[in-house]
Amino acid sequence: MKIAILCDTHFGARNDGQVFLDYYFKFFDDVFFPACEERGVKTVLHLGDLMDRRKFVNFNTLAQVRERFMDRLQSMEVHCIVGNHDTYFKNTNEVNSPKELFGSRYPDFHIYDTPVELTFDNTKIAMVPWINKGNEQESIDFINQTDATILAGHFELEGYQVMRGVKHTDGMKPDMLQRFDKVWSGHFHQKHEENNVCYFGTAYQMTFADLFEKKGFHIYDTETDEIEFVPNHDKLFHAIPYNDDINVAMIDFRQYQGRYIKVFVHEKKDAKKFDRLIEKLYENNAESVTILENETPTSENVEVDKDALATDTMTLISSYIDDVFSEDPEECKRLKEAFKELFLESFDL
Ligand SMILES: [Mn+2]
Questions:
Q1: Dist. CA 192 → ligand 1 center (Å)
Q2: N or C: which terminal CB in the chain sees fewer CB atoms within 10 Å?
Q3: Cα of 279 to ligand 1 centre, how many Å?
Q4: In the predicted model, what is the mean pLDDT of the chain?
Q5: 201 C-alpha vs ligand 1 centroid, how far in Å?
Q6: Do residues 140 and 29 both lie within one domain?
Q7: Are 79 and 40 in contact (CB under 8 A)?
Q8: Confidence label for 218 from pLDDT (cuts 50, 70 and 90)
Q9: CA 77 to ligand 1 centroid distance, Å
Q10: Domain span at residue 87?
């Protein structure tokens, strides 16, 4: 049988922005549901972070998620674990938005806030929701004793990429997951794979940092043990490199409607031509246009380069804490943990 895998849908992201929500649903309308129908997929795994906001829900977002996502999934059996964005408290998964919002309304939408083993044909998959202080031991015991060959979760694993080029320096050690044939995870939003661990990434762009990332979703076939990647080519974020050779008349501006654009200017002697380009973008209702002078779009400058700062910033903070609280190692430890948590939260995974 074929099983579709989703994760990190983050409905309601960017302050419940309608542009984002429409763009997310477009993936489901144009890519996800048609691809599932074509392949006869009747089962879906969701690896956490269904909703974006941890504490509240915007009812306009909720109404649309029901109508344009949940209602359409009703012909399928869905197994959803909770992610860090789905839980109200930091130290327990017990109060979580999927259960509160959708729990009893959708009988075939199963929500797990504790670990579970599921069997599809002859394939056993162990599913582990977000690991926090309260359920850490229980989760580890479960991982150590399950005889499932595939482990799926919302893992924060050391050595994997928080953002492209930035490795997470703390968290769970991947060694303890070595014995599984495959480890599948949500949480880190860039699609990447190393050893037996695969982070699927978000199915669509979430920030400008996704400009050069491959987006889409995956379908696992229990018979062949193979994973198919179904690409989503629709982009919310675009880079336009500008120099005076550009032929404005040849550009199809309709693709930029409702989209976020960064124009990277290399050379601009022909001010008229440049103005025409910018005017055309606004005429075609680009959602946002940002002009960057003397720049080339690279994976480094498409977004403020938080990542290069990442390790350095934490090292800096840590050594400051060490200096100031050198007499109180307990306090040092507590502060470092609190800062790290805040820092990671700023990435909004
Ligand atoms: Mn996430």
A1: 14
A2: N
A3: 36
A4: 92
A5: 9
A6: yes
A7: no
A8: very high
A9: 22
A10: 2-231
Do both 183 and 204 map to the same domain?
yes
Q: pLDDT of 288-339, one tens digit each?
A: 999 998 776 666 555 544 444 455 566 778 878 887 888 888 888 888 888 8
Decide if 150 is inside a domain: yes
- Two tokens, residue 247: 């032929």
Residue carrying structure tokens 């306090």: 331
Of 275, 307, 306, 305, nearest to 291 by C-alpha is 275
- Domain total for the chain? 3
What is residue 188's predicted lDDT score, i.e. its pLDDT?
95
Answer whether 197's CB lies under 8 Å from 177's CB.
yes
Answer yes or no: do 184 and 241 share one domain.
no
Any domain includes 45: yes
Name every residue whose Cβ is closer than 8 Å to that of residue 121 and which is 6 or more positions away in sequence. Answer: 1, 222, 223
**Taking the model in full, what pTM does it have?**
0.87
Residue 299 located in a structural domain: no
101 C-alpha vs ligand 1 centroid, how far in Å?
A: 18
Burial of residue 247, with CB atoms counted within 10 A of its CB: 0-12 exposed, 13-18 middle, 19 or more buried = exposed
Considering the domain architecture, whether residues 74 and 172 belong to the same structural domain is answered as yes
Ligand 1 centroid to Cα of residue 189, in Å, is: 6
> What's residue 304's pLDDT?
43
- Separation in Å, CA 348 to CA 9, 82, 99, 263, 345: 13, 16, 22, 26, 5
pLDDT (0 to 100) of residue 323: 79
